[in-house]
Design a protein that fits this description.
single chain, 399 residues, alpha+beta, eight-stranded mixed beta sheet
């Protein structure tokens, strides 16, 4: 069986759904089909076992324009200020929302909450969602991009978005190389519970092995606070931590983070993944466009991966609308060149910024450590500079 859609999206994660919704909002007459290899999950996980994503203010404005934020807002945790420090060294600063005259610097949403609302909004917009449907191969020989499912169905499209992360088999079929830059570090991700009422403060604590981000999750009750933790450690430390029971793990985390929130009461399920920078040698070939984590992976230090994907979804939707108005084909390089040029520049900026931030506080010896710590202390005394740093983090650079 052969079918055709104007836009075909492979991957129904947060990025794939966001691109589908953005395109549908600006191009309501387009036929959009999204395929996801796994069944969509329903229900809510244990509150200590959820995973979260930080949304900057530009992402919030995009979600609002797509008709999602009004429903999601109640399930989001506001970041009202960010405490930045360096473990074992003097110097710290606090960046606040009030300095930028906004109610929050950003928000933290649990991925299952965001995913459920994206899925519901996609259905409202008439996007065809098929799950589980697994793509077996990409087809390029007929001059029109197409995919073949494991059941032998062939789907052609004017434009195919690859939004299922880094897929080497697919990239090989397109002749696109994956560029890898490994690091000696591993990210350990989990939720932690502390006593007291949620104040909306996020923490970015730099350690010799990398950053430790502690992000406020939405309040479930007034007796304790939940935080989503992304902890960068050496590979050997990650192995050690993986063998610890919860009590021993809590003690190690407490030692690394400190006592700013009191004693760690509990931790949830822990996940680990190697911190490896992956990027595609090119993002478009023959009607196939790589988007989201398929095109770039970022160090989680600044939580910009999803934000960058949302930004790119809005840009692509606009370029497709422009092509439609000119009656130009949406899947050709000429129609996508402005999009590719812009996202390439912004990807380089975000990648360079997050990589620099991730390594800024690596141990380099006293001749470099002392000036750097002094700079962090001075940042706390220079509101104008601190405001500029905070403004970039909110995504206002894109507004």
């Amino acid at each position: 069986m052969i079918s055709h859609s104007q836009v075909l999206i492979l991957g129904g994660g947060l990025a794939g759904l966001s691109f589908a919704i953005a395109i549908a909002c600006e191009n309501p007459d387009l036929d959009i089909v999204l395929l996801e290899a796994s069944p969509f999950r329903s229900g809510s996980p244990n509150p200590l076992d959820t995973r979260g994503s930080a949304l900057n203010l530009h992402s919030v404005s995009l979600l609002e324009s797509w008709g999602i934020w009004s429903d999601l807002r109640a399930a989001a945790g506001a970041i009202r200020d960010i405490h930045v420090s360096h473990r074992g060294h003097f110097g710290s600063t606090v960046m606040t929302a009030s300095e930028l005259d906004v109610s929050a610097l950003g928000y933290v949403v649990e991925n299952h909450e965001l995913g459920q609302r994206l899925l519901a909004r996609a259905a409202q917009l008439g996007i065809t969602i098929r799950s589980p449907v697994r793509c077996n191969a990409l087809r390029t020989e007929a001059g029109t991009p197409a995919i073949e499912t494991e059941d032998g169905e062939v789907i052609t499209a004017d434009l195919v978005l690859l939004a299922a992360g880094v897929a080497p088999d697919w990239f090989d079929q397109l002749g696109i190389r994956v560029l890898e830059r490994p690091t000696p570090n591993t990210a350990v991700v989990f939720n932690a519970r502390f006593p007291g009422q949620q104040s909306g403060r996020a923490f970015e604590r730099f350690t010799p092995n990398g950053p430790l981000a502690v992000l406020p999750l939405p309040t479930l009750n007034h007796a304790d606070q939940r935080y989503n933790v992304v902890w960068s450690v050496s590979d050997s430390t990650a192995t050690t931590l993986g063998d610890l029971d919860d009590e021993a793990f809590r003690n190690h985390f407490q030692d690394a983070f400190g006592w700013r929130l009191g004693r760690v009461q509990a931790v949830g399920q822990r996940s680990q993944w190697p911190l490896m920078r992956l990027s595609a040698s090119e993002q478009f070939r023959g009607g196939f466009l790589l988007v989201g984590n398929a095109a770039h992976t970022l160090h989680p230090v600044a939580g910009q991966g999803l934000n960058l994907s949302l930004r790119e979804a809005g840009l692509l939707a606009h370029e497709i609308a422009e092509a439609q108005q000119r009656s130009a084909p949406i899947g050709c390089l000429a129609s996508l060149k402005a999009y590719l040029d812009q996202v390439s520049r912004e990807q380089r900026f975000v990648v360079d910024s997050t990589d620099a931030l991730a390594t800024l506080f690596n141990r380099r010896g006293p001749l470099l450590d002392v000036p750097r710590d002094a700079s962090l202390a001075l940042l706390d005394l220079l509101p104008a500079v601190r405001q500029q740093v905070a403004s970039v983090g909110t995504g206002r650079r894109y507004a």
